[in-house]
Amino acid sequence: MEKTLNNRAWWLVAPVFFVVAFSAVVPLMTVVNYSVQDTFGNNQFFWNGLGWFGELLDPSTDLGGRFFAALWRNLLFSAIILAIEVPLGILVALSMPRDGWKVAATLVLMALPLLIPWNVVGTIWQVFARTDIGLLGWVASALGLDYNYTGNALHAWITIVVMDVWHWTSLVALLCYAGLKSIPDAYYQAARIDGASRWAIFTTIQLPKMKRVLLIAVLLRFMDSFMIYTEPFVLTGGGPGNATTFLSIDLVKLALGQFDLGKAAAMSLVYNLIVLAVCWVFYTVMTHAGSGRAETEIAQ
Amino acid sequence: MASITLDGLAHAYRPDPQGPKDYALKEINHVWQQGGAYALLGPSGCGKTTLLNIISGLVIPTRGRILFDGRDVTRLPTEARNIAQVFQFPVVYDTMTVRQNLAFPLKNRGVPAERIRARVEEIADRLGLSASLDRKASNLTADAKQKISLGRGLVRPDVAAILFDEPLTVIDPHLKWQLRSMLKEIHRALDLTMIYVTHDQTEALTFADKVVVMHDGAVVQTGTPEELFERPAHTFVGHFIGSPGMNVLPATVEGSTARIGDTTLALAHAYPHLPAGARIELGIRPEFATLAAPGDGVPAKLNRIDDIGRARIARAEIAGRPFAAMVPGEVRLDGSEAGIRFDPRQIHIYADSHLVTGEAIR
């Protein structure tokens, strides 16, 4: 079929173009603008070229050291919560009821943590973990544990990880549950007839059928934990010291605490590129995962 | 090797069945002989899949027992029965190759690797899957997948019966014939009991030596395709089997004469012992009723004539009830007035929908 060439068709793209321009590209350009300049306030800017980027990507400098420290810290955090939330979510989904009123009850209970605003979650856990009035902190102290999340980096990490697991495991579980529900009964019946063990049913039927939703769950949880800000900010404020200062927290400290707009702009651009790159990898994996085309002929 | 006996089997999905209405499956006594090819035929919702799942052990019946060669297996789990089942939608393990799929039931039962290998290759050969053994099962077509599901049953040397739950539903029409004749071949080659559930009478009648017709949770007739056609034991069987189905007309029967409306018909048998108060009906297949000129046979009103290729079928009305009859080549009619001739030997009398056997006329 021959395509009709008509330049007036560009007008049809115009609305999308303007919306995207004003919602994303133009604001981003101000960041790009800042990233190549330095300022001492008073709205006076000086050209700095790619200087900030050079500094940022060189771990031996102050800025670079700080950026890479926050980056590794953040990647470690994401890895830990993925390693906990994904298997736990699968386990929860597998043990959720299949039918009856219990389904609705479970779904509502599971959705509750997801409905709480981030800063409220932070506040809840901040109070919960306090050794004087918080249930968790008080019980830990009463049991003779030297628990102090404001002073001990490891305790702060444990508290933040547990908080994130509490907040987000439901999401993974709900996604997995949706994946499990889409498996027809015949698969389980066939597996029983084939004498498959519980473990074999999991690895040969349930896990393959959950693969796509699991990828989505991992993507969502990775992105969200990689960009986490509010909860640790409210709970620990990034401390003790810099122990729980993740990328977003560091960025805010840099931009609004120190008012280093140029450095912060460069950092946010690099941050953004990392997020985009990871997104692209996931997207590619996901679209390839389900694209095994049916081959029509079978050898007779 | 097993014959399967259903002894007083009944099943209700509700935990506290009250009346017969609550039973998805009403009491059934039946013996499936070793090596038979059976079809369970009935419309959707008649309980045939329930019955199949009870035999395979996926459902535990509310009442009654199932015996395999006299051994009670009613409460035995599926994996402990010598049964394989092929489902409506092909079940294959997506992540595995065809070979791994076929080996799966044997692997789960701890069969040594070299025995698995030999057995899988033998069965793949029989199913025509040899060339695709090392391909991913998820990439195959529906009919190949269905062969794999069947193959997973066949590889088990202990399997005595294979149950099919409408296995050709998602198969392309031109491949249905092929698969069905392959099933027949396998049935002849291996001494297996096969039970085939379907709502398609052609599938049932071509596949099975014996057809069990189910209606509303109960077995209404068991017989060879010929018996079902020639002597339907229930008006439902008459309707359901044959195309068009059997004609059923309300009638009054006295001795060896039947009255339909104002017309009296002589019957080939006498019915002196019809139950009093029962609803009496007369049934005759369209194949044994012929359209004739008005005044010949039972008066009828002709609506139209359908040409179905191998024959012409008259769609008529007798006493206000629809009636189908064959149109012989020579008949000439003007207008809608017509008569229909009945072959008296092919007339069946039903009391409350059940066939009544006539006695010889003295």
From TrEMBL, chain A:
Alphabetized UniProt keyword annotations: Membrane, Transmembrane, Transmembrane helix, Transport
Source taxon at top rank: Bacteria
Residues of the ABC transmembrane type-1 domain: 71-282
CDD domains membership: TM_PBP2
Transmembrane segments: 12-36, 75-94, 106-128, 154-180, 213-230, 264-283
Membrane topology of the entry: Multi-pass membrane protein
Keyword Transport: yes
InterPro entries in alphabetical order: MetI-like, MetI-like_sf, Sugar_ABC_transporter
Principal location listed in the UniProt entry: membrane
Keyword Cell inner membrane tagged: no
Coiled-coil region(s): none
Subcellular location: Cell membrane
Family note: Belongs to the binding-protein-dependent transport system permease family.
Protein name: Sugar ABC transporter permease
Source organism: Ancylobacter crimeensis
TrEMBL record, chain B:
Keywords, alphabetical: ATP-binding, Cell membrane, Membrane, Nucleotide-binding, Transport
Keyword Transport found: yes
A GO term for molecular function: ATP binding
SUPFAM superfamilies per record: MOP-like, P-loop containing nucleoside triphosphate hydrolases
Bilayer-crossing regions: none
Coiled-coil regions, chain positions: none
Keyword hit for Signal: no
Domain ABC transporter: 4-241
Family statement drawn from the similarity comment of this UniProt entry: Belongs to the ABC transporter superfamily.
Name listed for the protein in its UniProt record: ABC transporter ATP-binding protein
Organism of this sequence: Ancylobacter crimeensis
Taxonomic lineage: Bacteria, Pseudomonadati, Pseudomonadota, Alphaproteobacteria, Hyphomicrobiales
